Amino acid sequence: MDGTLVDLGIDWDSLREEVRREMGWSHPLRPLGRSIPLAARSEEEVRRAFEIVERAELRAAERARPSPILRELLEKIKERGLKLGLVTLQARRSAFRVLERLGVEDLFDVVITREYSLDRREQLEQALRELGVEPSACVFLGDMEWDVRAGRELGCLTIGVGRRIEGADAYIRSMEDLAVY
Fold this sequence. Notes:
By secondary structure, the protein is mostly helical. Helix content is 46%, strand content 10%. It has helices spanning 12-23, 32-39, 43-61, 68-79, 92-102, 120-131, 145-154, and strands at residues 85-87, 110-112, 139-142, 157-161, 170-172. Helix 1 (12-23) runs antiparallel to helix 3, helix 2 packs antiparallel against helix 3 and helix 3 runs parallel beside helix 5 (92-102). The longest helix has 19 residues, at 43-61. It is globular, with a radius of gyration of 16 Å. The mean pLDDT is 95.
C-alpha cells in the first residue's frame, strides 16, 4: 500500500526510533514490521509495539486524498474482468481507512494485512487463494525487494513501483503510469 498504491509520508526512521524508545529496545527494527516479533520479549510487547505503529499509520491515513486517476485506473482493471487484491504490512484498520480516503475501498476483491502474516510471500499466497488465481496469471506490484522476491518465487509477473528493483520484470514510477498500458 504505502509506496505502491499511495505515498502516506510516514517517516519510517522516526517511527522506528519511537518504537525503540517506548519499548526500551536497541534492535534496528529493519524492516519494521517483521522485526518487531524478533525484538520483543513477549507477545504483550509485540502487541504494544504494533499499537505504536498502528497509531502512526492511522495518522498517516488521514493524509490520503481521493485520486480520480487511481480510481479510474482500478475501475478499468475491474471492467476487464480482472480481480484486484492488496497485500500490505499495514494494520487492517489503517489499510481500510486509507482505501476509504482514496475512494477505492469498493474495488478490491481481497485485502490481506499484517494481522494475517508479516511475511509477504504468505500474504501473497493467501491473496491468490482467496482470489482463485494462479500465480502465473497474476501481476504483482511492489516497492520493496521482498515484494519482488515473493512475486518471482511464486511465479507472478512482478512490477517494481517507484524505483528499479533488481529481479522485477518491469518498472513504473507510480500506479498512475499503469494507465498508459
